[in-house]
Amino acid sequence: MRQVRRVTMSDKAEQSVLKRSIAATILVGSFGVVFGALSGSLSIVFDGVFSVVDASMTFLALLVTRLIARHSSRRFQMGFWHLEPMVLLFNGGLLTLLSFYAFVNAVATLLAGGRELVFDWAIGYAVVTVAICLSMFLYGRRKNREIRSDFLAFDVKGWAMSGLVTAALLVAFVVATLLEGSAYEHWTPYVDPAVLAVLTLGLVPVPLRTVMEALKDIFLVAPAELDIRVREIADAALARHGFTEARTYVAKVGRSRFVELHFVVPADHPAQTLRDFDRVREEIGEAIGGAARDRWLTVSFTADPKWVE
User: Fold this and answer.
1) Which pTM was predicted?
2) SS (H, E, C) the chain
3) Residue 236: inside a domain, yes or no?
4) Which end of the chain is more exposed for a tag (fewer CB within 10 A), N or C?
C-alpha cells in the first residue's frame, strides 16, 4: 500500500528554517574569514571556513528537502528519500576531513614556534559569533521539536559545534590577553594553534557519528526498534485473523520508513473479500503509526508460502 506524499506545512517550515540557517552561516563564515585575516588567527580562519562549508551543505540539504516534498517523478518512481543519507554522508565526511586538515596545520604551527595574534580583533569576533550561534541553536532546536527532520537535527548540531568552538576560542583569547606583559607572555604565540588542535579533535566525533548513521541508511540496515515493533504487529495479526505465517522486512532511508508485511493465508481460511483484506491493511497501518507521507507500507496476502520467502 503506497502512501502518496504531499507538500505539507512541515515541509515548508523545514525549508524556512534551513534558509535562515544558510543566511546566518554565511554571515558567520564571512566574519570568520575577515576577522581571521585581521587577527592572524588560524583558529578563526578555520571557524570561518567550517561555516562556509556548512552553509554550502545546508543549501544542498535544502534542495534535497524540496525534491523529497515532490515525492517522485517518472525517472525516480520510488521517490527521493535516498538522497537524504547521501547528503548527510557527504556533509559529515567533508567536515571530518576539514577538521583533520586543521589539526595537522595546528600541530605544524606549534612545532614552528606558534603564531602572533591581534587579540582585540579575535575577541570581538568571538563575542559576536557566540551570540549568533546560540540564537540559531535555540531557534533550530525549538523548530525541530515539531518538524523532526534529520537535516535540521544535523544543522542544530552544527550550530552547537560552532558555538562551542567559538566560546572556547573566546576563553583562550581572553586568557592570552591577560598573559601579555606577564612572565608567561612568551606562551601567547602557542595559544591559537593549541586551541585549534584541541578543538578539531573534539569536533571530529560529531560528523563521524553522522557518517555512521548515514551509512546505516544507505546500506539499509534494519532499525532494531522498528523491526521489533513491526514483528509484534505481525504476530498480533496472525493470532487475530488466523493466518499461517508472516514475514516482515523494514528499512530506514533518511526520514522515510520502508515496511513490508507478507501473510500466508491457510487453504481452509474462511472466504474473505478484497475489502476485508484492505481493512487488515488499514489496521496494520494504524498500528505502525508515523506520518503516512514518509512511510512506504506494503501488506500482501498469499496462499502459497513461496511468495513470502
Assistant:
1) 0.69
2) CECCCCCCHHHHHHHHHHHHHHHHHHHHHHHHHHHHHHHCCHHHHHHHHHHHHHHHHHHHHHHHHHHHHHCCCCCCCCCCCCHHHHHHHHHHHHHHHHHHHHHHHHHHHHHCCCCCCCHHHHHHHHHHHHHHHHHHHHHHHHHHHHHCCHHHHHHHHHHHHHHHHHHHHHHHHHHHHHHCCCCCHHHHHHHHHHHHHHHHHHHCHHHHHHHHHHHHHHCCCCCHHHHHHHHHHHHHHHHHHCCCEEEEEEEEECCEEEEEEEEECCCCCCCCCHHHHHHHHHHHHHHHCCCHHHEEEEEEEECCHHHHC
3) yes
4) C
Which residues have CB under 8 Å from 70's CB, separation 6+? 7, 80
Amino acid of residue 226: L
* Any domain includes 295: yes
User: What span, in angstroms and rounded, lies between the C-alpha atoms of 186 and 289?
Assistant: 63
Cell, residue 20: 535562515
3-state SS string for 33-79: HHHHHHHCCHHHHHHHHHHHHHHHHHHHHHHHHHHHHHCCCCCCCCC
CA-wise closest residue to 51 among 69, 76, 24 = 24
Domain hosting residue 258, numbered range: 224-308
- pLDDT (tens digit per residue) in 195-241: 878 878 877 888 888 899 899 989 989 999 999 999 999 999 999 99
Residues 208 and 230 in one domain: no
Give yes or no for a contact between 83 and 65, defined as CB atoms under 8 angstroms apart. no
